[in-house]
Amino acid sequence: MKYIEKLRNSGLRPTKQRLQICQVLFNSKKTFHFTINDLKKKIEKEININISLATIYNTVHAFENKGYLKQIPINSNQTYFDTNVSDHHHFYDLNEGRLIDLENSDVGPINIKKKINGKKIKSVEVLVKLEA
Fold first, then answer.
1. At a CB cut-off of 8 Å and minimum separation 6, what does 76 contact?
2. Domain coordinates in residue numbering, the chain
3. Residue 67 phi, psi dihedral angles, 5° rounding
4. CB atoms within 10 A of CB 39
5. For residue range 15-52, what is the model confidence (pLDDT) as tens digits?
6. 1-84 in CATH: which number?
7. Of 88, 87, 90, whose CA–CA distance to 99 is shortest?
8. Are 102 and 128 in contact (CB under 8 A)?
9. Rounded to whole angstroms, how far apart are CA atoms 89 and 14?
10. What is the pLDDT of residues 50-73, one digit of tens each?
11. CA proximity to 81, closest of 9, 29, 121, 24
12. What is the C-alpha to C-alpha distance for residues 121 and 99, in angstroms, rounded to an integer?
């Protein structure tokens, strides 16, 4: 099963609950954004089971560390995760608390003029905050 390998590559044992987390995260044709609490609700709705927040948190962070998910910090107390791990930009709707993908072609050239000795830019991802 494809999820067992993902779990093992992330340093996790493939338990029934973790396999169910994988099913919700990676069995969708369309990528999506979520918080840990959003994912818990989605799992409970789609699979009709109760999984602890700790299990979800640990699994999501193990996947993020392995590169299967991308973390998108919005502010100091709010973090979203994205199943689309490619470099891309986002709108963040402040009123709805929702992330929306923004295609790279929708953003003009970005010119970073400052350099930091011994460091190179890995990626540039724009977060555009929206409000009503």
1. none
2. 1-84, 86-132
3. 95, 10
4. 21
5. 999 999 999 999 988 999 999 999 999 999 999 988 99
6. 1.10.10.10
7. 90
8. yes
9. 32
10. 899 999 999 999 999 999 999 999
11. 24
12. 24
Structure tokens at 130: 């929206």
- Token pair for 19: 């396999």
Q: Which two tokens stand for residue 74?
A: 């919005």
Tokens of 121: 């830019």
CA 6, CA 19: separation in Å to the nearest integer?
10
Q: Exposed, middle or buried: residue 111 (CB in 10 Å: 0-12, 13-18, 19+)?
A: exposed
Distance CA 25, CA 83 (A): 7
**pTM, entire model:** 0.88
88 pLDDT exceeds 90? yes
In the prediction, which pLDDT does 76 show?
A: 83
